Amino acid sequence: MPDSIPPSGRRDPGPAGAGTLADPAAPAGVASPPPGGDGARPASRAGRGGWARAAAGLAAAAAVCAVPFYAEAFWLQAGLFAMAAAIGAIGLNLLTGVAGQLSMGHAFFLAVGAYTYVWLAAEPERAAGHTLHGLGWPPPLAAAVAVAAAGIAGGLFSPIAGRLRGASLGIATLALVFLGQHVLFRAEAVTGGVNGRAVPPMEILGLRLADSPEPPVVLGVPFGGLEMLWFPGAALLALAAWFARGVVYGRPGRALTTIRDHEIAAGAMGVPVARYRAGVFVVSSVYAGLAGVLLALVFQRAVPEYFGLALALDYLAMIVIGGLGSVGGAAAGAVFVSLLPQLLTRYGDAIPFVAQPGEEGLSPSEAARVLYGAAFVAVLLYLPRGLRGLLPRCAAPASRARAVRAGDAGDPPR
Amino acid sequence: MTALAELLVNGLASGAVYALVALGFVIVHRSTEVINFAHPSLLLAGGYLVAVLHDDIGFWPALGAGVAGAAALGALVEFVVLRRLRSGSHGTLSIVTIGVDIVLTVEIARRIGAEVLPLGDPWGDRVVQVGGVTIAQARIAALGVAVAAITVFLLAFKYTSWGVAMRAAAEDRATAALMGVRLGRVSAGAWAVAGALAALAALFLCVFPTPGLDRATSFAALKALPAAVIGGVDSTTGALAGGLLIGVTEALAVGYQDEAALLRGGFADIAPYLLMIVVLLIRPTGLFGTRELARA
Amino acid sequence: MRTVRIGIAAAVVACLAAGCSGKATGGGGESGGVKTGPGVTKDTITVSALTDLTGPYAALGKGVTQAQKLYFDQLNAAGGVCGRKVELLVRDHGYDVQKAVAAYSEIAPRSAALPQVIGSPITNALRSRLESDKLLTIPQAWAHTLLGSRYIQLTGTTYDIDMVNAVAFLVKEKGLKAGDRIGHIHLEGDYGQSALAGSRFAAEKSGLKLVEQQVKATDADMTAQAAAFRKAGVKAILVSVSPKQAASLAGVTAAMGLKVPFAASNSAFAQQLLATPVAPVLEREYYVMTAATPFSADVPGVKKLAGDYQKAFPGQPLDSSVFSGYTTAAIVGEALKKACAAKDLTREGIVTAHRSAKAFDIGLGGAPQDYSQWTRPASRAGYIVKPDKAALGGTRVHQEPAESDLAKSYNPPAG
């Protein structure tokens, strides 16, 4: 493989050539490379950049591993919420950002993951006057099946998704959130109804990842549930991001972007449109399921109320703010949206426009919502590539994919 | 039998109110091809204005102010946010309206706080008895006003130059622009009309038998979203049909919840969405929507 | 592959190096002969409130929080506890369980007690953590399913007791007799279920036939439920829904010509309803079962509280949330004082001090409360109040607190 390819070199005769369709604004004569420019990455990996990359990755991994030894519970919990949100957001971004299928129903698939895990892993119990079912499976198996179940749910919905485009699809997925929540509220024996139910802690090789009266002490630091969950959480996020990059920058990503930008052309070029559309729905649901399981574990309780419209909009906000179509952007957006309210609550007294409890004015949680709503609008107006677009161009290969055109699939061909 | 008649009349009355809201979705979609997710916040804004003003200036002027205020807010959103994005795709524009809705709803909900604000309407809790069927006067007013408003709108849509311009723009924006249609005015006008209809709907959502406006009132607008989709989001007739269909479905689901276990526990709330999914499966463009061609 | 291996190795090294972290375990200690625990320093005792200032119970949250601030301000002005100031840390969760759980993680390590937690679902979600953290917690929720924990103190009567008393009241004063039908409209979830447990018990004991109607928190129009009650021919209606839903129900039943008495849970009325068109209906035949002394009652302590509150928060509504906030803060305040006297300000010490109160009474009216056991409600006697526009706080006493014979024979199943 050559170290570099000429800028105009189109080595891939496949659907990637449709990059031009995705980028009508590109200067004439210069074909915009497909997302992730097939040639760029191997080149840097083999060259000197590879070592820099490895060193940076190493430092990052070390930093992530050190966090539980220093950070207090508040930060660990906030970080774990952000990790779960990032996994979910990356999945949604594959669906909405890359493949252009507007989904407002991500919360539903999170709920499927969370509740399937709870149901499979929990022992039957009596709580608040009624019996709760549970199968008492080993937690890791329950988690794996829960993630798969979310994927299956996505697969079952994809025939409907396949018939709809753009905003109509958004509304149909919105319906999924309302229907799903209704079922969760009614299925008291499994979900605990309005009160929700406790989430059984994860157990890996006999080690319970939960708070205990006598916490194991690692290097002088007592390890509670949050400390222990931190490591699998970070590993899952890394795995999720790595896989998503593979999808985005690989053949499926190019096919999906082409479908997003011009479905008929994609079909004409031999992309199996229906299969890809269904496939990305399943993959995105699997991500949501994983996020749901992790969230439930951090939360220690699953409540149907939580998996509603507000959560679905949160996820949409994450990928819009982070930058549609980019894996790193989705993660950044997830961190922003999930940390903002908590930071404003904790440090609100230092911020002038945030009112303290009992005072008139914007409360921290309202301020957080206004800020993220405004960020949502501002990003679309002024920063079409999201937070990701703020990074230098070389660091953001996905930005060339003109992420902003994501919601486009609903347009009639013009 | 009287029970059924009562349910049907009440269902039609609330359906007419849903139709007002659904019409707002349709008008905006026809002129700009955007699904206006900020519609609930326009509705809340209109209702809020009526609620705070009626004590000082009387109900009818307050209603006028509410309708005008919501219309102005709609036009403002179009002017400040959407116009800047004219070049963006319709998908992006629809997503932007979600952000607008979040900001507006939080602010209005904060102002409403935990209060239940009465709108000071003249109908109060009076009811009419017709052959054993009890109907609230406010419901009859809702039916009448909604039908009148929709008729006026449809006539304007058909005969005024604004209506013609709007239909032209919906048909083919580029050609319409070339023919001298000012697209900016058309779409700002559409947003304003949608806002006005939403304010009117807010009034009838908050009068008897509901005690008043509160922060949850905007959820009703979300119920009208399936109404618009069921009818076909580019069809004004469809909005009317969808609204009535949803109103009646909801009333029946509530009315017969004691007879069927399935209908209990808030089934009425999700019935519109269930109906919508079924319709979308059979006709992806809704009952009256234009079928899109050229799908691979 | 090699980079991966190096990465893992480096991560392990980093983790080992982190061992020198100073992340300390929650400290206990002793100062001035008093044992102290988390939330207690040399000069402050921190107590925390998980409240709702932006969600559906914002009105309740605001009143409770302001009243608690008032109490602790007064306590501090009088010298505090154990030479320490008591500081109230407030976190708003907007009735969102996730936010509440997150907020709890933040404040729990630095709190000595929780004088306010709004919401049954939230208290339930935190229950096991509250118990393992040994935090004295006073929820602003009255479902009997919250009973049964040494660390969670419900104040006054529970929803089921209220409904038992309500049925007894309807039979005694409104002439209901065996064989009559009685309606009960209730929310889904703890509140409604708890109330329903009481009404089912009382209806069976009194030979009444209960007509149940369950509604969701988001329902606004009660026409269908009213129609069902009319069809069933109920002689009275028990109400365990939100104030707004109660107003809709009262309006619709009146419009339908169904003139029956209502007996409501304390959470099914708010002063704000007296500004709506249904006010006359409510003033006519609406009775609220509550353990909170109404501000119009002739009790000196309550009159003083009304004056102090209006001075501190002019123009703010004076309702049962204020009473509830002030008394719950006082429960924690008294527990702290006792714990100080016993020279044990650890969390366990505070709970032990609190649980020693067998007949708690701070001069704010109502029946004395027994906090020494936690599997039964602290009291079985509540006021019956009637909405009244002219009365301070919007309600006046219809019947002084009394324990009905029916309530005496009722034992709520602990959750």
- What does the overall shape of chain B look like? globular
- Total separate domains of chain C: 2
Compute the number of structural domains of chain B.
1
CATH class assignment of the largest domain in chain C: Alpha Beta
CATH superfamily of the largest domain in chain C: Response regulator
Distance between the termini of chain C: 55 Å
Oligomer: heterotrimer
Total count of helical runs of at least 4 residues of chain B: 11
Helices of chain C, by number, come to 13
Please, could you describe this protein's structure?
The complex is a heterotrimer of chains A (414), B (296) and C (415). Chain A has 414 residues and is mostly helical. Helix content of chain A is 60%, strand content 4%. Chain A has one domain: ABC transporter involved in vitamin B12 uptake, BtuC. Chain A has helices at residues 19-22, 40-46, 48-70, 73-98, 106-121, 139-163, 166-186, 188-191, 225-249, 251-261, 263-268, 273-299, 309-322, 327-347, 364-382; strands at 125-127, 130-132, 197-198, 203-204, 207-208, 217-218, 221-222, 301-302. Chain A has a two-stranded antiparallel sheet. Residues 1-46 and 393-414 of chain A have low confidence and may be disordered. With 296 residues, chain B is mainly alpha-helical. Chain B has one domain (2-215). Helix content of chain B is 71%, strand content 3%. Chain B has helices at 2-32, 39-57, 59-82, 90-112, 137-159, 161-171, 173-178, 183-206, 219-231, 236-255, 267-282, and strands at residues 127-130, 133-136. A two-stranded antiparallel sheet of chain B has the order 1-2. In chain B, a hairpin with a 2-residue loop joins strand 1 and strand 2 (133-136). Chain C has two domains: 29-157 and 296-379, Response regulator (Rossmann fold, 3-Layer(aba) Sandwich); 159-290 and 383-408, Rossmann fold. Chain C contains 13 helices and 14 strands. Chain B binds chain C through residues 3, 6, 10, 14, 110, 113-116, 118, 124-127, 134, 136, 208-212, 214, 216-217, 219, 251, 254-255, 257-258, 264-266, 269, and chain C through 54, 56-60, 62, 188, 214-216, 218-224, 227-228, 231, 243-244, 247-248, 251-252, 254-257, 272-273, 275-278, 281.
